[in-house]
Design goal:
Layout: E1 19-24, E2 32-41, E3 46-54, E4 57-63, E5 71-74, E6 79-84, H1 99-108, H2 111-119, E7 129-134, E8 139-144, E9 152-155, E10 159-163, H3 174-184, H4 191-202, H5 224-230, E11 240-251, E12 254-261, E13 271-272
Antiparallel strand pairs: 1-2, 1-10, 2-11, 3-4, 4-5, 5-6, 6-7, 7-8, 8-9, 11-12, 12-13
Helix pairs in contact: 1-2
Length: about 280
């Protein structure tokens, strides 16, 4: 059995896990489609999507340890998703919860307002993270690193973008590159067929060949074989893995569909939570 190497104290460390895929202005009828897996330690408590605030209406899951979220949207169709930047060292001592950045961005309610929010954020106060945020008109990515003085923000062109726990397009994240290549072939499908294909993608627990997986750094708390497990789209290990999954369809009128699986997709069915936005 593959195991994490023991640490002197519990550490909610992320190295290479979550998957956040976005189809931005590349589908015939939907300007924004999101498919996301959240991977986390099973011992870390969280709640499924719910209405967290009503002005604006914010629908998001809640991390009960840090108090923030990893993914959410507003009733007007503004989406925010976060992945932690891979790190063998974990977050700096006393770091703020990255999940609060998601909620603050959702409260800001727009791409421009979130740009301003991130421009004023001090990345040295957080563990490293990546943020995707957008609506039917625009999509931006932001990279925050504790060794940088500012958050890097970039607009994204129309197309398929898959963010894991490094920059978009990083060769160290083969799972993201595989997912993007598969989604590219589905852009002509109507929403019901695209939805089903994305759900199947998120449930894919196959692992790449060991030689295709970058070796973890020397101080990582696991070996290359464990890193291979983390490069599945749906991660399965005894203590850590895919905790939930979400599918969203957004147009200029707002969130048209939101489906949520409160467990590994494929094991747990997706349920329609779209009514939360009404």
């Amino acid at each position: 059995m593959l195991r994490l190497r023991p640490r002197p104290a519990p550490c909610y460390l992320i190295w290479a896990v979550c998957t956040l895929a976005v189809v931005h202005r590349a589908h015939a009828t939907l300007p924004l489609v999101v498919a996301a897996n959240r991977d986390e330690f099973f011992a870390r408590p969280a709640t499924p999507p719910a209405v967290l605030e009503d002005a604006p209406r914010i629908v998001a899951g809640r991390d009960l340890l840090g108090g923030g979220s990893w993914l959410g949207a507003t009733g007007r169709g503004f989406f925010v998703g976060l992945t932690n930047q891979r790190s063998a060292a974990g977050s700096p001592s006393g770091a703020r919860s990255r999940g609060h950045v998601v909620l603050d961005a959702l409260r800001a309610g727009s791409v421009a307002a979130t740009d301003a929010l991130l421009a004023a954020l001090d990345p040295t106060e957080y563990g490293g993270f990546n943020l995707l945020y957008g609506d039917a008109h625009a999509l931006h990515v932001a990279y925050a690193r504790p060794d940088a003085s500012t958050v890097e923000i970039a607009p994204l062109p129309p197309g398929v973008h898959v963010l894991a726990n490094d920059r978009l397009g990083s060769a160290s994240m083969p799972k993201a590159l595989r997912a993007a290549a598969r989604i590219e072939g589905w852009l002509e499908r109507p929403w019901p067929a695209l939805r089903d294909a994305l759900a199947e993608l998120l449930a894919d627990d196959s692992i790449p060949p060991l030689e295709a997986v970058p070796a973890p750094p020397p101080d990582a708390p696991f070996d290359r074989a464990f890193a291979q497990r983390l490069q599945a789209l749906c991660v399965r290990t005894p203590s850590y893995g895919t905790r939930c999954a979400d599918l969203l369809a957004i147009d200029a009128g707002g969130v048209r569909a939101h489906l949520h699986a409160e467990g590994p997709p494929g094991d747990v069915p997706f349920e329609d939570v779209s009514a939360l936005y009404r």
